[in-house]
Amino acid sequence: MNLLVTGGSGFIGTTLVRLLLRETGHRVVNLDKLTYSGDTGSLAGVGGEHPGRYRLVRGCVTDAAAVFPLVAEADAVLHLAAESHVDRSIATGGARVFVETNVMGTQTLLDALRSTPGGLAKRLVHVSTDEVYGDLPLGEPGVRFTEETPYAPSSPYSASKAASDLLVRAAVRTHGQNACVTHCSNNFGPWQFPEKVIPLFIARLMDGRRVPLYGDGRNVRDWLHVEDHARALLAVLERGRAGETYDVGGDNERSNAELTAMLLDAFGLGEDRIERVADRPGHDRRYAIDAAKIRRELGWAPRRSAWPEALLETVAWYRENEAWWRPLLEKAGRAQTKRRN
């Protein structure tokens, strides 16, 4: 098939594009705006490794002039393009770009599919987050998010993703769009921009700095290796039922304090490297996904998400690939300074 992947130069998109080119015969067009968190270096060389099967188009998912012809050429669309950093969405004036990209970008794709002959029959995999569900209580391991959990987003980021989900669901109900929605838990692994907690902490520890731990550190996340997530998206593309939602989790719940301790241990460091900081506004206490549906219906299960092995492999990757992430971190720092000035 001819596949259109939006946001294919981001963290999850990079892994998905590599998987598609490595393990399928599909051709991939990657539409990416290449913002601060998207980088051409993360897919350097894949075009040469897979001649005629990969093309990068620099553009924004909100730009109808760019999106419509790409959708017309595609047999299916995997929609990953999104603003995703919660702290950025909370910052003063930060929410607007989340609404523009996550909500309006999704609607632009839906408009393109509806306007293209045969577009409603084309599979759309809309990639979302478990954060649309809000949070769960601590100390109740039997309670997890499922596809039936009501939406209760806590941040502008998760609210914008919830809105985009609902637009896709409406397109299914009203127009018969052949679409599936996925909700994933927290991803980790190679090629993640170092503003997210795991690569951020690794970078700080490599620089001899302290790591910031929000609040009491008891907040819990379900950690999913990015390659396991990419394989789930491929399963949904190929075998998912139209109109269905699939939740994707790593069955790997860890508190932020436990994560921090494991990273410190990986560097042979102690708790003196922890900097206690005020909690994030509206900070969700616990995320946990019951992935029984995708396991049962599509035969997917996580292969690489188990800790400590997978976390230690991730630490090793960032230590060995400093030449990739450090220029990105410096570029983001310069952009942040420019915005403040």
Automatic annotation (TrEMBL):
Leading EC class: lyase
Protein name, per record: dTDP-glucose 4,6-dehydratase
One of the Pfam families matching this protein, by short name: GDP_Man_Dehyd
Gene: rmlB
InterPro entries assigned: dTDP_Gluc_deHydtase (IPR005888), NAD(P)-bd_dom (IPR016040), NAD(P)-bd_dom_sf (IPR036291)
Recorded GO MF terms: dTDP-glucose 4,6-dehydratase activity
Catalysed conversion reaction: dTDP-alpha-D-glucose = dTDP-4-dehydro-6-deoxy-alpha-D-glucose + H2O
Organism the protein comes from: Phycisphaera mikurensis (strain NBRC 102666 / KCTC 22515 / FYK2301M01)
Domain NAD(P)-binding: 4-305
